[in-house]
Amino acid sequence: MSRISFCSLLSVAVLAAIGCDDKKPARMSSPESDQLALAGRQAPADGRQKKPEAVNLADPDVERKVILNVKMEITVENVEEAGQKITEIVKVSKGYVIKSDESVAAGARRQAVWTIRVPAKSIGEVADSLKQLGEVTRRNMDSNDVTDEFYDTEARLKHWKGEEETLLKLLKEKAQSPEDILKFRAQINPIRENIDRMEARMKTIRTLTEMSTIDLTIKDRDVLTPPNTSSKPTTSVGRTFAASVETLQDFGHDVLIFCVGLAPWLPLIAVALLLLRWITRRLNRPKPARLPPPLTHKPATTEV
């Protein structure tokens, strides 16, 4: 009995110990996994990822970021000659032409529309050179200060690059399994998207602020009058002859198109013509003359 009691007490003690172990909270993650989960939220103690201080825009030494657009209308003596001078001015200023469009109509003034890009630092010199082409009838300058946006984007870009650098370092040092790598990548990818977006915006701002746009319209001073051809009969004769030649060309073109379209049908048309010819010849063939029936001579009877 003593042995049975001792075994029973031992069994109860073992079960109680197992029950106490089950009630203890299980640790589901290692210290490295906990550090991985907090990697995107906490910055290292050396302070390298602290957000840069905002730029003082009131500081006169801060480079301003201003987008300049100029619109000008100039009346010139000759649009063609003025266009050549515009090309020279743009070339000297190290700019380039985006668009050039010239229009002319009888009874109206010939005009040309130019869209050019020149360095912002030389926009004043270029505008003064264009003024020398003729009489300026309109001039408008529009500016958009994007200094605040530029430096704010630059500060946030530095911050996110620091965050990315830290996560990449932890990825290299702490990731021990594919699951750890996926967790790091899940935190790095959104940061990289933000960095790419900010870099693209900063590049656009630099392009728009370093090169200014000039929309230029030049017009002839005098109205273009059509030539008077009423007193020149030779002109009417030549115009009539040219119209006749053009009509003949159109006719020849139409005939050629008709022949090309008819070509695939020629074998069928040839067969149909041969069949029609054979039928016609059969119908028109002369019929053989019918001979009269032979006469039957009865023997003559003599009466006695």
Describe this structure in words.
This protein has 304 residues and is an alpha+beta fold. The chain has a domain at 46-227. Helix content is 53%, strand content 16%. The protein is built from 8 helices and 5 strands, in the order H-H-E-H-E-E-H-E-H-H-E-H-H. It has helices at residues 2-23, 31-37, 79-92, 123-131, 147-174, 178-210, 233-262, 266-284; strands at residues 66-76, 96-103, 111-119, 135-145, 211-220. It has a 5-stranded mixed beta sheet with strand order 2-3-5-1-4. Strand 2 and strand 3 form a beta hairpin. The chain is flat and about 145 Å long. It starts with a helix and ends in a 20-residue tail after the last helix. 11% of the residues are buried. Mean pLDDT is 76; it is low at 1-10 and 12-52.
Question: How does the SSE layout of this entry go?
Answer:
Blueprint lengths: L1 H22 L7 H7 L28 E11 L2 H14 L3 E8 L7 E9 L3 H9 L3 E11 L1 H28 L3 H33 E10 L12 H30 L3 H19 L20
Parallel strand pairs: 1-5
Antiparallel strand pairs: 1-4, 2-3, 3-5
Structural class: alpha+beta
Biggest β-sheet strands, sense, barrel: 5 strands, mixed
Strand content: 15-25%
Unreliable segments of 5+ consecutive residues:
1-10, 12-52
Distance between the termini: 184 Å
How many strands appear in the DSSP assignment? 5
Q: How many DSSP helices? A: 8
Which strand order does the major sheet show? 2-3-5-1-4
Instruction: Please state the overall shape, judged from the principal axes of the Cα atoms.
Output: flat
Helix-strand topology string: HHEHEEHEHHEHH
Rg is: 50 Å
Write down the oligomeric state. Answer: single chain
Determine the fraction of residues in helical runs and give it as a percent range: 40-55%
Mean pLDDT: 76
